Amino acid sequence: MKEKDRKIKGLIFVISGPSGSGKTTLVNRLLDGRDLKNKLVKSTSFTTRPHRSAEEPGKDYFFITRDEFNALRSAKKILEWTRYLGYYYGTPKDHIDKQLKKGKNILLCLDFRGALKIKRLYPGNTVTIFVAAPSLTMLQKRIEGRCSRTRKEEIRQRLKLARQEMRNSRKYDYRLVNKSLQKSVGELKNIVLGRLSN
Questions:
Q1: What is the pLDDT of residues 130-164, one digit of tens each?
Q2: 169: which DSSP letter?
Q3: Homologous superfamily, domain 3-196
């Protein structure tokens, strides 16, 4: 373990999965469960996409302009970032480092590039978990259902990204196939509790 990692007490759990895999629902159920309610802190990302009516700024995302995002990136205030469907998303460095030094355990939802970047930055403290749909056919149906009111081009892009992420799932510490929500929540909880008890 590197010297930097010895000074950090908390763990980072990075959860990835393609659009339609159910990872967001799993994460919300995990955080709402009494077993982990006070043991995990969900990181809030920066984004340049518009604020949706159901979202709470500062809780769901920090909504910023593209110029603000570029300034933070230039100042090395963003640990990892990605461009998705025309918008930028990034993980705030100061928030992550502050929580880890306090001994807090952090939960991040990232794409595979972000997951691997965090693993490189915090090798002794990062646990990566990939959430997969039972099949590509089912994933396609979920994406098409989610994007029924959007352009066909967006559906095509989401499917292309989903296939790319599925190919990279072998690089994760754990791979969870989300066939049943209740069963998957239990599996995810067992992974997290198991690593926290080590």
A1: 999 877 777 777 666 665 555 677 777 777 777 88
A2: G
A3: P-loop containing nucleotide triphosphate hydrolases (3.40.50.300)
Distance CA 175, CA 171 (A): 9
CA 51 – CA 60 distance, rounded (Å): 10
- Look at phi and psi of residue 156 and say left if phi exceeds 0, alpha if psi is from -120 to 50, else beta: alpha
What does pTM read for this prediction? Answer: 0.83
In what order do the strands lie in the sheet containing 106-109? 41-42, 106-109, 12-16, 126-132, 174-177
**What is the rounded distance in angstroms from the CA atom of residue 144 to the CA atom of residue 152?**
9
- Torsion angles phi and psi, residue 99, rounded to 5: -65, -40
Q: What is the largest CA-CA distance in the chain?
A: 50
Q: How far is CA 137 from the centre of its chain?
A: 23
**Residue-range domain boundaries for the chain:** 3-196
Phi and psi based region of residue 70 (left: phi greater than 0; alpha: psi -120 to 50; beta: remaining): alpha
